[in-house]
Write a structure and sequence with these properties.
GO molecular function: 4-(cytidine 5'-diphospho)-2-C-methyl-D-erythritol kinase activity; ATP binding
Function: Catalyzes the phosphorylation of the position 2 hydroxy group of 4-diphosphocytidyl-2C-methyl-D-erythritol.
Strand content: 25-35%
Bound molecules: 4-diphosphocytidyl-2-C-methyl-D-erythritol, adenosine-5'-triphosphate
Protein name: 4-diphosphocytidyl-2-C-methyl-D-erythritol kinase
Oligomer: single chain
Number of domains: 2
Distance between the termini: 32 Å
Family: Belongs to the GHMP kinase family. IspE subfamily.
Order of helices and strands: EEEHEHHHEEEHHHEHHEEHE
Radius of gyration: 19 Å
Keywords: ATP-binding, Isoprene biosynthesis, Kinase, Nucleotide-binding, Transferase
Length: 285
């Protein structure tokens, strides 16, 4: 048996940190949505408990350290199933970019193996298993748009943003999520995003109010480490993006625009200035 799963990237329309927890994680409040930039995960059933993994990208581990491998292994352990899987990752999402690429691969592997091995687990059960792999995995199990709280695993689905184009620009370097959170001083945050106003904007299907309420408390932290992120933000604004924000812990910056022609203009303007640039649609609209 063989199956193929799409593993889309996410962006954070808002990201707020409320407190640092005794376990070292932060309690967050975020609005996340999926965009049409995706890895593809091909999965082939093996009649014994082995797992093999191959990726088209040399930038991700090709062994048991890969989050997709970890996902398949964890699913075997949780269910006691005596079957294995051959995993092939066609990597399109930039790595260590703040776009949850690895988390989405893990989530797609959980969904795909659940089908391949006829496990009959619900999405809720898969999300619970996924939370052991990473904070973004539960969101990636469901996709679409959600409010995420706690470590990121407490999810409430919400209407997706109005239809628009998303320009994604990633600087050359990647960012370690742990390093960025490690430098965040929650009691020194000066501007918190207005999560409630973003939720209202989505419920009202108001593009203007989505733009007006974009915010991410990790952005100044990452800019402090990599000032290039700020330069990309400025360039996107100059080239005509309606709203611009860093996604997750960065360093990818996204810009929202209504028209494809404007998105293409921004992509052309940024090409040569940063490593990877894409113009994609929002998903789930
Ligand atoms: C920044 C976001 O992408 C926003 O969606 C996520 O919060 C990060 O999710 P992720 O990459 O799945 O992160 P994890 O692998 O769970 O955690 C990596 C590291 O980030 C920090 N971390 C992560 C999530 C969280 N709520 N608080 C944290 O402080 C911790 O130091 C942790 O060791
Ligand atoms: N399948 C995978 N795809 C991408 N990275 C992976 C994968 N498996 C393991 N990794 C490792 O995980 C690290 C983070 O990669 P990833 O692309 O998921 O970061 P990210 O987009 O910043 O994630 P997030 O937005 O969830 O913080 C990288 O250092 C990479 O080597």
């Amino acid at each position: 048996m063989y199956t193929s799963e799409k593993a889309p990237a996410k962006i954070n329309l808002t990201l707020d940190a409320l407190r640092k927890r005794p376990d070292g994680y932060h309690d967050l409040e975020m609005v996340m949505t999926t965009v049409d930039l995706a890895d593809r995960i091909d999965l082939m059933d093996l009649p014994y408990s082995g797992i093999t993994l191959e990726s088209t990208s040399g930038l991700v581990p090709q062994d048991e350290r890969n989050l997709a491998y970890l996902a398949a292994k964890l699913l075997q352990q949780k269910t006691g199933i005596d079957r294995g899987v051959k995993i092939k990752i066609y990597k399109h999402i930039p790595v260590a970019a703040g776009l949850a690429g690895g988390s989405s691969d893990a989530a797609a592997t959980l969904r795909g193996c659940n089908r391949l091995w006829n496990l009959g687990l619900s999405l809720e059960e898969l999300a619970e298993i996924g939370a052991e792999i990473g904070s973004d995995v539960p969101f990636c199990i469901y996709g679409d748009t959600a409010i995420a709280e706690g470590r990121g695993e407490i999810l409430t689905p919400i209407l997706s943003p109005p239809s628009c184009w998303v320009v994604l620009a990633k600087p050359t370097h990647g960012v370690s999520t742990g390093d960025v959170f490690g430098k965040l001083q929650v009691d020194r945050i000066t501007t918190h995003p207005n999560t409630g106003a973003m939720i209202d904007a989505l419920q009202a299907n108001s593009y203007e109010n989505v733009i007006a309420n974009l915010g991410n408390v990790l952005e100044p932290v990452t800019i402090g480490l990599y000032p290039e992120v700020y330069k990309i933000k400025q360039k996107m604004e100059q080239f005509g993006a309606d709203g611009v924000l860093m996604s997750g812990s960065g360093p990818t910056v996204f810009g929202l625009v209504r028209k494809e022609s404007r998105a293409k203009r921004i992509v052309n303007g940024l090409r040569g200035f940063c490593d990877q640039v894409f113009a994609v649609r929002m998903l789930g609209v």
